[in-house]
């Protein structure tokens, strides 16, 4: 018994000493202001740059960085001849392909980066986002500034004790005012609300509406709202309406598209009706020439029987089958779609045996993520099991013919740091206003120097579950034309 007590004492001493004084941890590194192990600490030389979007660099700012040194440590950041004191660093490890697609809207390969993972270091001063360094090799980083990517190599792990640079103070917002004092921007926002079920299980209808918001010199000029979806085309404005019709105790939803103000129902999708089913159609997105929706079929007990995506050209919504992914992005797009689907199946091992292996090209749509449009596909079950399918991201950028403008003047990470509850954002090509959505509200902000203004210019209450299915920008003289159209049409 005495021997047992001695062994027990030694065990307790070992356990307690391990709890009280850990020497190391296998947890992932998360950089904080107190962390002395800054993995990008050192002196870096900027030796190359790439202008992916081929935009002119304002004031020839490329000379500000190229052939110059960056110095990074916990106490300061010296870059472009400017000195930032007491910077804060945040670290995260990301999937390279998803990061470039979701945050930069490019394929990382155009930058010569073929890594699976990247290390991202976000730098801020007093809570204000500053730079984001992308570490893609032990001694190589890149960063984005004014639409240009700069590449730097590490020359030393140490920094100067007294760096010579201009100390940076927070600049006045007035210094960012545009030269053109008569900037006009307007946005048409299409919204769809989610369906409800009542106490008896009856399925409600989605509501659709369009908001028109315009600003002149960063001041709200007009705010209007209309039922249904009003969208611009080269032939003028058109209107989309979803109508529910009842047949022998079942309902069927049809899509009606007409020139705006015209009630002749010139374009009607003559959908076939199910024999003993209810049919719902959710509009997922609409652009100038394409319409994406989700088809849902319900049995008499309002239990889902089938769900699938379909994309149709606006000029031919009567066609029976939706467009194939290769119809839009060619054979290369088809390969990307198949590889994306296979990757999704592989990451859901429990569903692998239940899902179809033959990927349907036409089963895709467009959704919003991190302030951008992206393609999403759907994989059906093998045996038609109810509510069993797998949605997956298709890792390729939408072409201009699908979505003309899909850039952010204020980066998504800056939006989230400023408004953590933000779920989506749209910024004007004029770089003057931004529309930020949360779960319950829509806010309009002015933009100064790549940052949101201090207070929103406009707040709009959103309905429960309401999401954006369209965003179309008007600039300069078109703002007046679009505003007059909304004034003239009062239906």
TrEMBL record:
Keywords: Signal
Alphabetical list of InterPro entries matching this protein: EF_Hand_1_Ca_BS
Signal peptide positions on this chain: 1-21
Keyword Signal: yes
Entry annotated with the keyword DNA repair: no
Domain of life: Bacteria
Region (Disordered): 157-177
Biased segments, Basic and acidic residues type: 157-176
Protein name: Lipoprotein
Originating organism: Clostridium simiarum
Lineage of the species this protein comes from: Bacteria, Bacillati, Bacillota, Clostridia, Eubacteriales
């Amino acid at each position: 018994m005495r021997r047992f007590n001695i062994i027990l004492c030694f065990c307790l001493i070992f356990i307690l000493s391990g709890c009280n004084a850990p020497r190391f941890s296998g947890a992932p590194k998360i950089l904080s202001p107190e962390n002395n192990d800054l993995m990008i600490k050192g002196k870096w030389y900027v030796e190359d740059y790439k202008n992916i979007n081929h935009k002119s660099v304002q004031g020839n700012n490329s000379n500000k960085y190229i052939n110059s040194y960056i110095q990074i440590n916990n106490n300061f950041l010296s870059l472009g001849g400017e000195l930032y004191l007491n910077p804060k660093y945040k670290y995260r490890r990301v999937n390279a392909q998803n990061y470039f697609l979701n945050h930069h809207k490019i394929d990382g390969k155009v930058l010569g980066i073929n890594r699976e993972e990247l290390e991202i270091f976000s730098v801020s001063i007093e809570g204000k986002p500053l730079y984001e360094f992308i570490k893609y090799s032990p001694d190589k980083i890149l960063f984005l500034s004014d639409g240009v990517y700069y590449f730097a190599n590490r020359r030393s792990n140490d920094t100067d004790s007294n760096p010579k640079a201009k100390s940076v103070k927070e600049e006045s917002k007035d210094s960012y005012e545009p030269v053109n004092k008569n900037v006009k921007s307007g946005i048409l926002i299409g919204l769809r609300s989610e369906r409800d079920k009542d106490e008896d299980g009856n399925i409600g209808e989605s509501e659709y509406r369009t908001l028109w918001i315009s600003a002149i010199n960063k001041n709200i000029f007009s705010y209007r709202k209309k039922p249904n979806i009003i969208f611009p085309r080269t032939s003028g404005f058109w209107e989309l309406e979803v109508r529910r019709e009842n047949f022998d105790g079942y309902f069927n939803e049809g899509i009606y598209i007409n020139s705006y103000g015209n009630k002749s129902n010139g374009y009607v999708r003559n959908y076939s009706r199910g024999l003993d089913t209810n049919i719902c159609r959710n509009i997922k997105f609409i652009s100038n020439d394409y319409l994406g929706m989700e088809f849902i079929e319900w049995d008499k007990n309002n239990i889902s029987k089938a769900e699938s995506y379909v994309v149709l050209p606006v000029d031919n919504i009567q066609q029976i089958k939706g467009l194939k992914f290769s119809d839009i992005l060619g054979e290369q797009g088809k390969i990307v779609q198949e590889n994306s689907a296979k990757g999704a199946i592989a990451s859901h091992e429990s569903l692998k045996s239940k899902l179809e292996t033959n990927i349907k090209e036409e089963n895709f749509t467009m959704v919003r993520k991190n302030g951008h449009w992206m393609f999403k596909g759907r994989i059906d079950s093998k045996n038609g099991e109810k509510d069993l399918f797998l949605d997956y991201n298709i890792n390729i950028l939408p072409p201009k013919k699908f979505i003309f403008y899909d850039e952010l003047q204020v980066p998504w990470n800056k939006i989230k740091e400023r408004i953590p509850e933000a779920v989506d954002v749209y910024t004007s090509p004029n770089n003057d206003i931004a529309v930020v959505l949360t779960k319950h509200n829509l806010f309009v902000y002015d933009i100064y120097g790549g940052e949101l203004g201090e207070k929103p210019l406009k707040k709009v209450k959103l309905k429960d579950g309401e999401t954006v299915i369209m965003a179309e920008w008007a600039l300069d003289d078109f703002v007046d034309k679009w505003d007059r159209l909304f004034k003239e049409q009062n239906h």
